[in-house]
Design brief:
Elements lengths: L2 E5 L4 H16 L3 E6 L4 H6 L3 E4 L2 H5 L10 H30 L3 E5 L3 H9 L4 E5 L23 H17 L1 H14 L16 E4 L16 E3 L22 E5 L8 H10 L6 E5 L15 E4 L4 H4 L5 E4 L3 H9 L4 E3 L6 H10 L3 E3 L7 H12 L2 H13 L2 H13 L9
Parallel strand pairs: 1-2, 1-4, 2-3, 4-5, 5-6, 6-7, 8-9, 8-11, 9-10, 11-12, 12-13
Helix pairs in contact: 1-14, 4-5, 4-7, 5-7, 8-12
Length: 414
């Protein structure tokens, strides 16, 4: 029996997409320890896995990128937060490794210090990525703005310029990371995309054709489909009384001040046939008022149980909600609010599985039109659902990880 340690950043949107792999590893006979948010202990243990908390100092360093005024400033703020966490992650993981002596480390792509420590062990290690891959390709647009795939030379020139701006924006935090990596005896990263290509394997939690096809996939990247584990829960009894078409409006579980999406949906869909269900997550549901009795507003619902019962999902573009909807064959209307969300929004649009309404263009009238258009894209969503299933999911992830366990390096630290 091998011991596998899965180390996450302090975000449920990064923990939950890997719990299916953790459970499949346990079912294959491995000891699995998940080092993650302290208050997820009971949930992890209830699934039959071992839990260790990440350091409190890491949880205290929260992302505040949504407060910045433009996308470049948002990226820089996120990078500074990840850099600030990195030294704590090194100490955190060093203590866990000394205690558990795991055979394989699987670390979140956003845990830069943990990744550097894993690489310094000179043994196979893996990372996982639950959002769009920020690695350049001749077939894909520059990461961040939510461009469609390049069609001609001008698009490719635009993409090179955006990559240059992006790498310039993150140069300072990457220099700080490279200094930490030098102390650990591992090579510098050098560029944004280098963050995602150092591991022996990267479990990429999506699949083509939701993600763009590439003719030059990095050999270490394994697109295994989304992680769809969710806390247990049942759809509320009142859901069956709501008429179709049902529209679910869902905003971020981490505070991003995206309540304008809810406001626009309640106003824009008030006179539409059917019903509207709103989950406010990090926002106070009391700030919103239902215009009639075909609207339900609540802080949370078990999306895994509710989404298959609705007809369209309106979302801020988090990969978790977006891909859960598409995995159920439900089309999406995405209003990206920041971070990588323009990328998931554009992928939904390009794949024919949904619509994209930019934040700057959000009005009740435009949202209503985007929802109507999305409702006609169910065939595209069903096509994505089939592709996600065919990608292999957790079982494919276990195959990749067991391949690493079977091939330890001769120079491994013991």
């Amino acid at each position: 029996m091998s011991t596998v340690l899965i180390y996450t950043s302090p975000a449920r949107g990064h923990l939950y997409p890997m719990l299916d792999v953790a459970l499949a590893l346990r079912a294959a006979g491995h000891r699995v320890v998940v080092q993650t948010l302290a208050d997820e202990r009971d949930r992890v243990i209830a699934e039959g896995l071992e839990h260790r908390p990440i350091a409190a100092a890491i949880e205290a360093l929260t992302l505040r990128d949504f407060t910045e005024a433009n996308p470049i400033a948002q990226v820089r703020a996120a990078f500074e937060a990840w850099l600030a966490r990195a030294p704590h992650e090194v100490g955190d993981l060093r203590a866990t490794v000394a205690d558990l002596a795991p055979d394989l480390l699987v670390v979140d792509a956003n845990t830069w210090g943990a990744a550097a420590f894993a690489e310094a062990q000179r043994r196979p290690w893996a990372s996982f990525l639950p959002y769009a891959l920020p690695v350049a390709s001749r077939d894909t647009p520059a990461f961040g703005p939510g461009f469609a795939p390049p069609r001609h030379a001008l698009d490719r020139l635009r993409d090179r310029a955006v990559w240059a701006v992006l790498n310039g924006a993150v140069r300072r935090p990457l220099r700080g990371l490279d200094a930490l990596r030098a102390d650990l005896g591992v090579p510098p990263i050098g560029s944004y995309e280098g963050l995602f290509l150092r591991a022996d394997a990267l479990l990429y939690r999506t699949a083509v054709p939701f993600d763009y096809p590439r003719s030059d996939w990095p050999v270490s990247v394994h697109a295994i489909g989304p992680g769809l584990w969710a806390p247990p829960g049942e759809a509320p009894a009142w859901l069956t009384d709501l008429p179709h078409p049902r529209v679910l409006v869902s905003v971020s579980t981490e505070f991003q001040d995206d309540g304008a999406i809810v406001d626009a949906a309640l106003a824009g869909l008030a006179d539409e046939p059917g019903s509207v269900i709103v989950t406010t997550s990090a926002l106070d549901p009391e700030r919103f008022t239902a215009p009639h009795d075909r609207v339900r507003i609540t802080r949370t619902l078990p999306h895994a149980a509710v989404i298959p019962e609705v007809d369209v999902v309106v979302t801020h573009g988090g990969m978790g909600t977006t891909q859960r909807a598409l995995a159920a064959g439900v089309p999406v209307c995405v209003v990206p609010w920041g971070r990588d969300q323009s990328e998931s929004a554009r992928r939904a649009e390009v794949s024919g599985a949904g619509t994209m309404l930019p934040k700057a263009k959000l009005t009740p009238e435009r949202l209503r039109a985007a929802v109507r258009e999305a409702s006609g894209r169910k065939p595209g969503a069903e096509r994505i659902a089939r592709a996600f299933h065919e990608a292999g999911g957790a079982e494919r992830g276990v195959q990749v990880l067991e391949g690493l366990l079977a091939n330890p390096r001769a120079d491994a630290v013991v």
